[in-house]
Amino acid sequence: MNSPQFTAEPSPSPSPSPSDADPYPVPYDVIIAGCGPTGAMLAAELRLHDVRVLVLEKETEPAPFVRIVGLHIRSLELMAMRGLLDRVLEHGRRRPAAGFFAGISKPAPEGLDSAHAYLLGIPHPVIVRLLEEHAIQLGAQVRRGCAVAGFEQDDEGVTVDLADGEQLRARYLVGCDGGRSAVRKLLGVGFPGEPSRTETLMGEMEVGVPQEEVAAKVAEIGETNKRFWLRPFGGGAYSVVVPAAGVGDRAEPPTLQDFKQQLRAIAGTDFGVHSPRWLSRFGDATRLAERYRVGRVLLAGDAAHIHPPTGGQGLNLGVQDAFNLGWKLAAQIRGWAPETLLDTYQTERRPVAENVLDNTRAQMELHSTEPGPQALRRLLTELMDIDEVNRCLIEKIAAIDIRYDFGDGPDLLGRRLRDIEVKQGHLYGLLHRGRGLLLDRTARLTVGGWSDRVDHLADPTAVLDVPCVLLRPDGHIAWIGDDQQDLDDHLSRWFGEPAN
Questions:
Q1: Would you tell me how many other CB atoms lie within 10 Å of the CB of residue 312?
Q2: Which residues have CB under 8 Å from 267's CB, separation 6+?
Q3: Which of 170, 174, 362, 430 could form a Cys-Cys staple with 28, CB 3.0–4.6 A?
């Protein structure tokens, strides 16, 4: 039986409230600790499936400083999948997808497999605000000035204690509360890795010498010291990055005098820096949570992994965690998740984090001013003239090389599908609601009893060189083929039992 060109059903109604007999009423399905990019994105993903979400943020106000972060290709694709890309692009500045790996300057390889093959620089507070607004527009609740002080979980849910003594109840708790995550510590999950060996000062301030003098000195020092720069930021301010003298308490911000001292030690001048807008420090600690889930409590973003910022992967990794977790946790709450679906969050995302930790370790070694690492850097710089090497490293940083292990099958299986053109416009425009999607070039398959979770696009495009593709809500290819029974088996694997 042929299906219409594109079929979709509205999302089901919200899950029922607990019975009056429940001694621990559950007003929320999920409580998220932390309203950074990861927490806000997760809240929005859950709300696409009518999950009742409360986000708790311990800070009463957004961070006062404006740090520029970069959205890599895969994160830009995720924004496009949820209809957010145009809004984000308004506030960012595009630059080529190049020079990410250890700051080695090489041009972007041609023909990167994405319709969004660039880096977007955007102020950190702006991307946080945009994602929070998106979550709120979808119906998430956000409460600021609320810190998680404790919690207890049982077979039915999680009771969360706030610092002010208030208790809240939810079916699940997700810690998106950063590298010093209270949720992770209270959960007792180990966070093994390496502590900071070096630290770097970062801030924005004005300088007291001509721009030409700054540029000449930065170019001279940058030949060997890749952790040093002064870059015009606009409005007379400069972004200043300089190695610290040692490893200090990251909870204590550095002073302007610290910057002057280190600038003089490395550059022979402090450039007359003054009028700082904000000052901070970051280290090269590298740690990975032993587990991403214990019962009804999960971890995402920096609560699950930390690493040096080289390559600019941290925010991206966290947002991509949220994108992977959101639909799976929603499926669990809605009652249609296959038994092992929620466990695939850890089995898929933890290896990705391991790879990011490894590539940042490698990049930090290449930043060293010691003769051995400098020799290795020169060698890698030569090797990156080979297109395959340059392309491999860019795709790794941009997270478009990820292939989840879905078992035997074509190389495309488990990979994300780029934003191809379809008769309705662009593929990602069909994924705004966070549902699965069958791209059916045969026009003879059906999603049948899964139509409340999976949309169907018949005869979508000639771009695909395979008969049919089943996409998960995160855009990864879950099945390739043309047999209805085989499709049904995979629909059951990812989307549970069909509706009656």
A1: 17
A2: 217, 221, 228
A3: 170
Output b/e per residue, 217-245; b: 16+ Cβ within 10 A.
bbeebeeebbbbbbeebeeebbbbbbbbe
Cβ atoms of 199 and 245 closer than 8 Å:
no
CB 41 within 8 Å of CB 48: no
Q: Cα separations (Å) of 40 from 84, 134, 179, 477, 486?
A: 13, 8, 16, 25, 36
pLDDT value, residue 21: 40
The pair of structure tokens assigned to 69 is: 């972060």
Distance CA 333, CA 9 (A): 19
CB atoms within 10 A of CB 361: 17
Q: Output the CA–CA distances (angstroms, integers) from residue 93 to 71, 115, 120, 318, in the order listed.
A: 10, 17, 5, 21
Rounded distance between C-alpha atoms, residue 63 and residue 34, angstroms: 13
Residue 92 phi, psi dihedral angles, 5° rounding: -120, 175
| Single-letter code of the amino acid located at 435 | R
Q: Would you say 443 and 459 are in contact if contact means Cβ atoms under 8 Å apart? A: yes
Buried b (16+ CB within 10 A) or exposed e, 155-192: eebbbbbbeeeeebbbbbbbbbbbbebbbbebbebebe
Of 123, 112, 115, which Cα lies nearest the Cα of 88?
123
Report how far apart, in Å, the C-alpha atoms of 221 and of each of 242, 258, 272 are.
11, 19, 17
Q: Any idea how long the chain is?
A: 500
Residues 6+ apart with CB under 8 A from 159: 24, 151, 152, 153, 167, 168, 169
The rounded distance, in Å, linking the Cα atoms of 173 and 146 is 14
Nearest Cα residue to 353 out of 302, 407, 392, 312: 302
Query: What confidence tens digit (pLDDT) does each residue in 222-270 have?
Result: 887 878 989 887 778 898 999 998 777 666 789 999 999 999 999 999 9
C-beta contacts of 275-278 below 8 A and 24+ residues apart = 275/205, 275/206, 276/203, 276/204, 276/205, 277/65, 277/66, 277/203, 277/204, 277/205, 277/237, 278/64, 278/65, 278/66, 278/67, 278/203, 278/204
Give the residue from 3, 373, 343, 58 showing the smallest Cα distance to 198: 373
Reduced to 3 states, what is the DSSP secondary structure of residue 473? coil
State how beta strands 297-299 and 305-306 pair.
Answer: unpaired
What are the structure tokens assigned to 334, written together? 């809605």
What are residue 312's phi and psi, to 5 degrees?
60, 40
CA distances from 421 to 301, 425, 462, 473 (A): 32, 6, 9, 18
State mean pLDDT over 314-326. Answer: 97
Q: What local confidence, expressed as pLDDT, does residue 6 receive?
A: 55
**CB atoms closer than 10 angstroms to residue 250:** 16
pLDDT value at 3 more than 70? no
